[in-house]
Amino acid sequence: MANGSGLTNAPGAWDWDALVQDDRVHRAIYTDPAIFDAEMTAVFGGTWTYVAHDSQIPRNNDFVTTRLGLRPVIVLRDRDGMIRVLFNRCTHRGATICRQAQGSARVFQCAYHGWTFFNTGELSGVPWPEGYATDLREEKFNLAQVPRVEAYRGFIFATLNAGAVPLADHLGPMTEIIDQWLDRHPGGRVKLCEANRLKYKGNWKLAYDNAADGYHVKFSHRSLLEMENRLKEGEEKGMSFYKDAPDEAPMYVQYLGNGNHFKDKRPNVENRPGALWEIEGVHPGMEHFEASIRQRLGDRAELALDLASSEPVNINVFPNLLILGNHIQVLQPRAVDETDSTWYGTAVIDEEDTLEGAVDEVNTLRMRTMESFPNFGEVDDATNFEEIQHGLVAEEDPWVYMHRGLGIPGRVKTDDRGLITAPATDEVFMRETYRYYKELMADPPKLEIRRAP
Amino acid sequence: MASSPDPSRTSHYVTDAYYADLVADFSDWQADDKLVTDAKTREDCRAFLTREARLLDAHSYEDWLGLFTGECLYWVPATPAGGDPRHEVAVCLDDRRRLEDRVYRLRTGAAWSQLPMSRTVRMVANVEPFATADAGILMVRSNFAIHEFRAGENQVLAGWCAHRLQRTASGFEILVKQVNLLACDQNLRNPSIIL
After folding, report:
1. CATH at B89
2. Cβ contact B151–A386 (<8 Å)
3. What is the radius of gyration, based on Cα positions, of chain A?
4. What pLDDT, in 10s, does the model give residues A138-147?
5. B91: contact with A, CB 8 A cutoff
6. What is the pLDDT at residue A12?
7. How far away is chain A from the Cα of B176, in angstroms, using its nearest Cα?
8. Hey, which residues 26-55 in chain B have their CB within 8 Å of chain A?
9. Are B112 and A340 a contacting pair at CB < 8 A?
10. Which residue among A227, A364, A370 sits closest to B108, beta carbon to beta carbon?
11. What residues of chain A, 361 to 380, have a C-beta less than 8 Å from chain B?
12. Does A193 contact B104 at a Cβ distance shorter than 8 Å?
């Protein structure tokens, strides 16, 4: 026992009720490398985990490489169109078999001894097989792959928990919120484009804790709020609704089960075409493209301009997918104190030409609006995450509090479906997420791989 | 436009044609047959880029902004080939107004990623000017290494720059500064300094 926290040094022997309490969590969940190692199986892959977007692999044989937790994986559409998540690890001696970020391949050949695998994961051949007395067609020589891979409207998730409920059931009411985010786009789809890629020296959960946090904005993002409003006196741009009394604003935070949460800032904005565009900050080319889109679309221009505007939502799918504005932000842990935070941009696809030829102009503007927050907001968040990691070194002062809103009668409301709603500054989303996290960590699901075909 | 709008306050010049020219201007320009061999021009370019680096190292951002034309661009691509910013996000793509936003934010006293501010020294080398179809405009390639110290740690950012420079009576003005980080498509730690 250390510090009365119930900690021991033995992995798997933590007292989770001591580490994760109703109003606070222990620093060890952010700083202990052994807990981090346990998360990389119990959480990343233990529960449905986002791995890629289907627009990254549009055709059969397309692939992207990524990580599921720390495991190197290849997410691909195989020769028959089936989406698979293969372990990027040769079954012979363990080298990665694919070292490109993305591409198209029917087979993968290991650069070490030339073992070759179909993109179904099946071993296709090895050099000089007569040197083996055993049958290389045995299943154990096929690549390991993740047994459960499912997509919800383009978002591809994977889990090594073969007994997990179907993805749509796991997401539950989150699907409606993802639907709303997608359905504001023509055809109900988006396509990933390049990304603003950041990393910080801090635990991955610091970013997830922040994802629905409406309490930090006025302080953490003061420089951005001042910048966004420097040119237009009296107008309320960008995230101005966080100023003054955000507790009393109509926006809210909601917990939707299984670690998933949602901060909805849309109620702060009038529900009419053009309202989003009106509160946009200033962006390169904005005046020119707005004039051009208005000329082209006339009365319908507001709808197009809103598509170039940031959607005021934070849709957070535990543990690593954060849909916010027009971004698909993905968290990838690298170590207990190092995390990649990748802000993929999304572009509008307009196959039906509902925007009457304006889609390219809308996307050009949308690229510029998306660059703003990673440049002028996320860098300050990431700095604060690093400074938390730094502060949490202090062993004798181990608690991190998340009790904002707890115990105030009438403040946190639970509806018939079990959805929990509170003012956007409440930390109820953290408390509920850590309840789910604790379940996973205290009783990790049994993980399995399978081998093709 | 009846009168020329102030690019510090409105952004009319970043048009589709501007982007098309940008992509064209930054493609296939580093050709040996366009290399400027005149010693004075080469030295003028070297001196200009050295001064620019000194202003940034000194956090003299307002003076640094003064090196740019009114209708300028500061561009840090997120792909090694530069890409087409109409279809993809960049690490940074600042027109005049956003560049002034960037400086404004650093001066608010609340830009936590730069409090304390990074200390930097920049090495600028391998300066090579190339001629363009416009006699008044040069494209200049230079390699850089920025040593950055902040919050107790050092990091090095390396890459190469392409400056599109307008000749003026007194020297040069920057039309476009493109900064090509070696790791532009990788996750960057605290990319909050001006490169």
Report:
1. 3.10.450.50
2. yes
3. 23
4. 999 999 999 9
5. yes
6. 61
7. 14
8. none
9. no
10. A227
11. 361, 363-364, 367-368, 370-371, 375-376, 379-380
12. no
In order, the DSSP letters of A37-87 are HHHHHHTBTTB-EEEEEGGGS-STTEEEEEEETTEEEEEEE-TTS-EEEEE
Q: Within a domain: residue B3?
A: no
pLDDT for the residue numbered A7? 46
Q: How many domains does chain B have?
A: 1
- Whether the per-residue pLDDT at A11 is higher than 80: the answer is no
Chain A (278-307) residues lying within 8 Å, Cβ to Cβ, of chain B: 282-289, 292
- What distance in Å separates the CA atoms of residue A112 and residue A105, rounded to the nearest whole number? 18
If one counts every other C-beta atom within 10 angstroms of the C-beta of residue A100, the result is 11
Chain centroid offset of residue A87 CA: 21
As for the ipTM of the complex, it is 0.96
Contact yes or no for B94 and A284 at CB 8 A: yes
The answer to whether A286 contacts B11, with C-beta atoms less than 8 Å apart, is: yes
Contact A318, A172 (CB under 8 A): no
Q: Is the pLDDT of residue A2 over 60?
A: no
In angstroms, the separation between the Cα of residue A174 and the nearest Cα of chain B is 27
- DSSP bridge pairs for A339: A200, A333
Q: Identify whether B8 is part of a domain.
A: no
Does some domain include residue B177?
A: yes
Return mean pLDDT, chain A.
94
Pick from B14, B90, B186: CB nearest A285:
B14
- The CA distance from A319 to A47, in Å, is 8
pLDDT tier, A6 (very low <50, low <70, confident <90, very high otherwise): very low
For residue A412, CA distances in Å to A176, A246, A426, B96 come to: 21, 16, 9, 46
Does B3 have pLDDT greater than 70?
no
Rounded Cα gap, residues B1 and B11, in angstroms? 12
The pLDDT tens digits of the residues spanning B54-94 come to 999 999 999 999 999 999 999 999 999 899 999 999 999 99
> Please, what is the angle between helix B16-25 and helix A359-373, to 10°?
70
Q: Do A288 and B11 lie within an 8 Å CB cutoff?
A: yes
Share of chain A above pLDDT 90, in %: 92
Residue B193 lies in a domain: no
Its domain, for residue B31, covers 16-181
Cα dihedral angle (A31, A218, B76, B151), rounded to 10 degrees?
Answer: -40
pLDDT per residue as tens digits for the range A210-247: 999 999 999 999 999 999 989 876 667 777 777 777 88
In sequence order, the 6+-apart residues with CB closer than 8 A to the CB of B17 are: none
